[in-house]
Amino acid sequence: MRISFERTGGFVGITKKTTVDTDTLLPNEASTLVRLVEVADLFRLPEHITSPNLQSDRFQYKLTVEDNGKQHTVTVSEAALSGTLRPLIEWLQKIAQKR
After folding, report:
1. Sites in the chain below the pLDDT cut of 70
2. How far apart (Å, rounded) are the C-alpha atoms in residues 99 and 89?
3. What pLDDT is stored for residue 54 in this prediction?
4. Number of structural domains, the chain?
5. DSSP collapsed to 3 states, the chain
6. CA-to-CA distance for 5 and 3, rounded, in angstroms?
7. Range of the domain at 64
8. Which of 2, 5, 6, 32 is a plausible cystine mate for 21, CB 3.0–4.6 Å?
């Protein structure tokens, strides 16, 4: 499984990008990533998830997941993060900060 992660927006407007591949992660990190993607049900999410309450200076996240020949991209605003998607976004942000 491979995930490309991009965070844009925010007050300063700094973009963070990273790509994570389960083949290059430690085994415990790889299993965590797979579990988080499954819990978020990422492949069933719509391509764009927005909040009805537009807020300036909020982050926007773009995830592209590739797994077993399937690919799906989801773009979600910070204000629209669901409880099941938030742990995946937070985990990917931590990985992006380490790189």
Report:
1. 54-56
2. 16
3. 66
4. 1
5. CEEEEEEEECCCCCCEEEEEECCCCCHHHHHHHHHHHHHHCHHHCCCEECCCCCCCCCEEEEEEEEECCEEEEEEEEHHHCCCCCHHHHHHHHHHHHHC
6. 6
7. 2-98
8. 2
